[in-house]
Model the fold of this input.
Amino acid sequence: MMSDKIIPTIPPELEPFFAAAKEGRLEVQRCVSCGTLRFPARSLCATCLSTQSEWTPVSGRGEVYSFFWMHQVYHPAFAAEVPYAVVVVQLEEGPRLTTNILDCAKDELRVGLPVEVTFEERGPDVRLPQFRPRRA
Amino acid sequence: MQPTKTAIAGLGITDQGKVYGKSAVGFAVEAIRLALEDAGLETQDLDGVLVNPGLSWGLSGSMGSFAVQQAMGITDLTLSASVSLGGASAGAMIMQAALAIEAGMASTVACVFADAPLKQPQPTSASRKKSSGTASAYAHAGGLEAAYGVFGVNGRYALVAQRHMHEFGTTQDQLGAIAVSERAFAQGNPAAQFCGKPLTMDDYHASRWVTEPFHLLDCCLVSNGGVAVIVTSAERAKDLRRLPVHVRGMAQAHPGGDPLETLSSGAVQAGKAALDMADVGLDDIQFCELYDCYTFTVLVTLEDYGFCKKGEGGAFVESGRIGPGGDLPTNTGGGQLSSFYMWGMTPISEAVIQIRGDGGERQVRKHELGLVSGNGGILSTHSTLIVSTSAS
Done:
């Protein structure tokens, strides 16, 4: 699905994240020293302060930890989207991601809803990790 | 810890809200001038200037206190700083002033917040061409958050509120109860932007969604203006024009971690520490002025201080105890939801008014001891003050 929504400018620290997404994988950072998984990307580990990290694939499964419905148009690229849901997904592996939920009716969205990763085309070169309800 | 030997001796509040024609520095200077006049002091009596620059200060905010010093022609300051802890800054400035005064580094310190984010509407704006840009014209924007359509702070607090609703069954009506209660107080405050505009629960529910579960009326106002206080020694304050507002207790707490997990603020730690310093208990507190960037912030802060258990804030605010006539009147001037948004200076200014007994129609009956909170970031920074008519 192509979208008129924002095509993210990819900062150097997120290049591995988007490279993996392009190939259909969700990856987060892992501290090489203590093994703690983290996201968003940071240059050092908040647990052991090590600067050594790598990117590692995760299951892409999790549940909705919290959410809100954005009704206000803050940016013209989202004018046609409101109201849209912003969700915090708790991944099975630990880190929490702030993303959107796609293919989810308003009354279906709740805290605890099982979700899985999906990928949204943003322009010709970018696939953005997104989430959708995990259905049996 | 002992109560501080300092007091607030002057208060200056400029016109608030949709008032134009001054820069942020201009509002700061006006607020300090009014506060000095209130205290019966002159500009050259000041030896300390502390500034919490609002968002519109831009680069000048990083040396905001110097900008104010130059604008007022003050010479020979011995204390000067910009304080940037968001909504906790105002309380933190008073703490810094009190510490400096007790250490002998300064004697008379102006603490000011000012901002001018609102621009005067232009008469030609209706005829201005609507943006012809398509979505794709804006399509490249920085950051992952923008890619997900996450803009502003409203949503960040809404996430915490939603989680609180999930864990504790907090309801929309309970958030609304705070908006309605504060608006009722604002009807007695002629300086409030919403004075003369009462609010019912139906009005609250009818107000548009911003970041659901937040309605527009869950969110604070946006205001131009400035508020300043003058802090000096309690000894000196006795000889000045106004009743001293003693700074009995003060504490900061910046908990770190993720508020989505804790569902709480630094009020947990700072409340206890400030009460200890003031040598009073929570039961002694007669009124509260709580930082209310959102309705939800008030609910969480009440829980964190221990006025009720974690998770019971909803029932507490619904009981009517925090409203006019309640036994814990809270945000008695209308707060930032209904009076004006001067960050942490809104609650502090109202506490000064109440302690002095200057509240007019909204004056609370018991006003010897009040608790004031400041909160910044997403429940990230926190300051607590305990203020009193008496020094100990």
Q: What stands out?
A: Residues 40 and 97 of chain A are 7 Å apart (CA to CA).
